[in-house]
Amino acid sequence: MLIKFLGDAISNLEELIRISNLDMQDIKEANHDAIFQRLESKNNAIYMFDYNKNLVRDAMFKLSKENPNKSIEEILDSETLVLIDKMREGLKTLREINKNYAKSVVAVYEFYNSLLENIIPSQRDGYSNKSHSKVDLLHIEA
């Protein structure tokens, strides 16, 4: 059963990597609609990965409880250990993709914020709040 749970989790992870790579490509091309259209399937893949990962954890916990005097490496067969390594590598890959995606998202956010600031002047109200007065809205530069 553990092998099935690991295989399912790896499949979910591969789907997340595929979707995340598409998101990276689309954010570079400013194809934001495609990113938003994939959001539900990405959330489903995240949910299913988390679900299967928890099944793996529970199965491994059960095995370790049944064999309290053995390490987890002694309990698991070589196929299971290979799948665990594959899942670990997939998680590393997804982490790297998400790190790069986050950088792109911040860059796009900063670009749109600076564009908005150039079009609609605003006043700083404290450290984080910006307010646009009615007079500022009349001075919009086109």
Describe the structure.
With 142 residues, the protein is mainly alpha-helical. It has 5 helices and 2 strands, in the order ααααββα. The protein has helices at residues 2-28, 32-66, 72-75, 78-119, 134-138; strands at 123-125, 129-131. Strands 1-2 form a two-stranded antiparallel ribbon. A hairpin with a 3-residue loop joins strand 1 and strand 2. It is elongated. 12% of the residues are buried. The model has no long low-confidence stretch (mean pLDDT 86).
The SSE order reads: HHHHEEH
Strand content: under 5%
Distance between the termini: 63 Å
Question: How would you classify the helix and strand content by structural class?
Answer: mainly alpha
Number of helices: 5
Order of adjacent strands in the largest pleated sheet: 1-2
- Rg to the nearest angstrom? 23 Å
Helix percent reads over 70%
Shape: elongated
Instruction: Give the biggest beta sheet.
Output: 2 strands, antiparallel
Given as residue ranges, the uncertain stretches (5+ residues, pLDDT < 50) are none
Mean pLDDT, all residues = 86
Number of strands: 2
Quick structural gist:
With about 140 residues, the protein is mainly α.
Structural topology:
Blueprint: H1 2-28, H2 32-66, H3 72-75, H4 78-119, E1 123-125, E2 129-131, H5 134-138
Antiparallel strand pairs: 1-2
Task: Please supply descriptive tags for the structure shown above.
2 strands; single chain; 80% helix; elongated; 5 helices; two-stranded antiparallel ribbon; 142 residues; mainly alpha
